[in-house]
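Troubleshooting log. The previous structure file for this entry was overwritten by mistake, so regenerating from the original sequence record. Sequence copied from the archived sheet and checked twice against the printout by T.R.
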Amino acid sequence: MVRTAGHASGAARTCTCPGLTPARAVSDPTLRAILDLLAESDRSAGAVARDFDLCQSTVSEHLAVLRRVRLAAYKERAGRSYSLAADPLREVVDWALRLAPLP
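Regenerated output below.
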Protein backbone atom coordinates (compact mmCIF):
# COMPACT_ATOMS: atom_id res chain seq x y z
CA MET A 1 0.00 0.00 0.00
CA VAL A 2 1.36 3.41 -0.94
CA ARG A 3 0.24 6.42 1.01
CA THR A 4 0.74 9.89 -0.32
CA ALA A 5 1.10 13.08 1.61
CA GLY A 6 1.52 16.72 0.97
CA HIS A 7 -0.20 19.55 -0.80
CA ALA A 8 -1.95 19.41 -4.16
CA SER A 9 1.38 20.48 -5.67
CA GLY A 10 2.83 17.17 -4.52
CA ALA A 11 5.22 18.78 -2.06
CA ALA A 12 5.45 16.97 1.24
CA ARG A 13 4.55 18.93 4.33
CA THR A 14 6.84 18.97 7.34
CA CYS A 15 5.64 20.86 10.36
CA THR A 16 8.45 22.33 12.42
CA CYS A 17 6.24 24.79 14.29
CA PRO A 18 7.74 25.45 17.75
CA GLY A 19 4.23 25.65 19.27
CA LEU A 20 3.23 22.22 18.00
CA THR A 21 1.10 20.21 20.41
CA PRO A 22 -0.22 16.66 20.26
CA ALA A 23 -3.63 18.05 19.20
CA ARG A 24 -2.08 19.96 16.30
CA ALA A 25 0.04 16.97 15.33
CA VAL A 26 -3.00 14.69 15.01
CA SER A 27 -4.68 17.28 12.80
CA ASP A 28 -2.03 16.59 10.13
CA PRO A 29 -3.09 13.67 7.88
CA THR A 30 0.48 12.48 7.28
CA LEU A 31 1.33 12.42 10.97
CA ARG A 32 -1.95 10.60 11.69
CA ALA A 33 -1.14 8.00 9.04
CA ILE A 34 2.30 7.44 10.60
CA LEU A 35 0.65 7.06 14.02
CA ASP A 36 -1.70 4.47 12.48
CA LEU A 37 1.31 2.46 11.31
CA LEU A 38 3.03 2.73 14.69
CA ALA A 39 -0.18 1.55 16.37
CA GLU A 40 0.08 -1.66 14.33
CA SER A 41 3.71 -2.32 15.29
CA ASP A 42 7.06 -0.70 16.03
CA ARG A 43 8.83 0.32 12.83
CA SER A 44 12.08 1.80 11.61
CA ALA A 45 12.05 5.06 9.66
CA GLY A 46 12.81 3.06 6.52
CA ALA A 47 9.86 0.73 7.12
CA VAL A 48 7.54 3.73 7.57
CA ALA A 49 8.93 5.34 4.40
CA ARG A 50 8.16 2.22 2.37
CA ASP A 51 4.44 2.71 3.15
CA PHE A 52 4.48 6.31 1.92
CA ASP A 53 5.30 8.16 -1.26
CA LEU A 54 8.00 10.06 0.66
CA CYS A 55 11.75 9.72 0.97
CA GLN A 56 13.21 8.35 4.20
CA SER A 57 14.64 11.74 5.24
CA THR A 58 11.17 13.34 5.03
CA VAL A 59 9.67 10.49 7.05
CA SER A 60 12.47 10.92 9.60
CA GLU A 61 11.51 14.60 9.93
CA HIS A 62 7.88 13.61 10.52
CA LEU A 63 8.97 11.08 13.12
CA ALA A 64 11.07 13.77 14.82
CA VAL A 65 7.96 15.98 15.03
CA LEU A 66 6.03 13.10 16.61
CA ARG A 67 8.85 12.56 19.10
CA ARG A 68 8.88 16.28 20.01
CA VAL A 69 5.19 16.13 20.94
CA ARG A 70 5.70 12.80 22.73
CA LEU A 71 3.47 10.79 20.35
CA ALA A 72 6.31 8.53 19.23
CA ALA A 73 9.17 6.98 21.14
CA TYR A 74 12.53 5.98 19.68
CA LYS A 75 14.12 2.70 20.71
CA GLU A 76 17.80 2.25 19.95
CA ARG A 77 17.71 -1.43 20.86
CA ALA A 78 15.98 -3.92 18.60
CA GLY A 79 17.17 -2.29 15.41
CA ARG A 80 16.34 1.39 15.96
CA SER A 81 12.60 1.54 15.83
CA TYR A 82 9.81 3.95 16.62
CA SER A 83 6.74 3.09 18.65
CA LEU A 84 3.46 4.78 19.43
CA ALA A 85 3.33 6.70 22.70
CA ALA A 86 -0.40 6.97 23.36
CA ASP A 87 -0.50 9.00 26.59
CA PRO A 88 -0.57 12.42 24.85
CA LEU A 89 -3.48 11.15 22.73
CA ARG A 90 -5.47 10.73 25.91
CA GLU A 91 -4.99 14.47 26.55
CA VAL A 92 -6.42 15.20 23.09
CA VAL A 93 -9.38 12.87 23.65
CA ASP A 94 -10.11 14.37 27.08
CA TRP A 95 -10.05 17.86 25.56
CA ALA A 96 -12.32 16.84 22.67
CA LEU A 97 -14.80 15.16 25.02
CA ARG A 98 -15.04 18.35 27.07
CA LEU A 99 -16.04 20.20 23.91
CA ALA A 100 -18.34 17.54 22.55
CA PRO A 101 -19.37 15.04 25.23
CA LEU A 102 -20.62 11.67 24.09
CA PRO A 103 -24.36 11.09 24.61
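The first strand starts at residue 72 and ends at 75. Archived copy saved in two places this time.
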